Amino acid sequence: MPPLTSTLLLIVAAAAAGWIDAVIGGGGLILIPVLMSVTGLPAASVLATNKVAAVTGTASAAVTLVRRVGMPKMTLAFAAAAFAASAGGAMAVSLISDSIVRPAIIILLLAVGTFVALRPQFGAAGGERVETGRRKALALVAAAVIGLYDGIFGPGTGMFLIMAFTAIFAQSFLESSAMAKVVNTATNLGALTVFIIGGYVVWPLAITLALANVAGAQLGARTVLKGGSRLVRYALLALVVVLSTKLLFDEFS
């Protein structure tokens, strides 16, 4: 374990990351850099330890949201596909260069942000959810593709899941958020399984951060329920800006 002051900083970062993950996703943008700067752990151990915190926090937020919003039965099938794809992505991560992934994600993020900004009715509460066999199949593919992305790269997974489920099923951001938390839990578990087998997790630190992450995630889940689809929309747009800025900085620095 790091010194007390460093541990306290990590706990605060983990709680903040849990809140952000519960609201929209992207908590790793806070916790991973702090882990890297404070602990001096190898990159694989940083990612593995972060995944322990992320999976517990996201799972707790998923339980809270599903209890209030509900969950279509097919969500578990989407989660299973995402789990397998994420594990495959984590195993293949060394084969894919960030120089290829990062520009593609920047373009996708900007497209998502532009679409949401120009379509204020997209993801708004109200309207009847559309669920057909073709849409379910498309959502299954989307969950697998996004799960693969989470295993390889990661930032914004929750946001991409919310966008995909909202677009495919013509439902509100709030309904999609509940589904996304369940599937995002599975993507985290898929990658974490690979990290555990590889022995990369620093367990004493991971458990401490997981407890803090759960506390933040519970607060975040309640924030989402109180703010509804409008809050998720604003959080999504904010995350697009933050992620795009970070990726552009990494690309050209």
UniProtKB/TrEMBL annotation:
It comes from the Bacteria. It is found in: Cell membrane. It holds the Pfam family TauE. Its main location: membrane. The keyword Transmembrane applies. It is a multi-pass membrane protein. The keyword ATP-binding does not apply. Coiled coil: none annotated. Keywords: Cell membrane, Membrane, Transmembrane, Transmembrane helix, Transport. The chain crosses the membrane at residues 75-94, 100-118, 138-169, 189-211, 231-249. Belongs to the 4-toluene sulfonate uptake permease (TSUP) (TC 2.A.102) family. PANTHER family: MEMBRANE TRANSPORTER PROTEIN YFCA-RELATED (PTHR30269:SF0), TRANSMEMBRANE PROTEIN YFCA (PTHR30269). This is Probable membrane transporter protein. It comes from Corynebacterium stercoris.
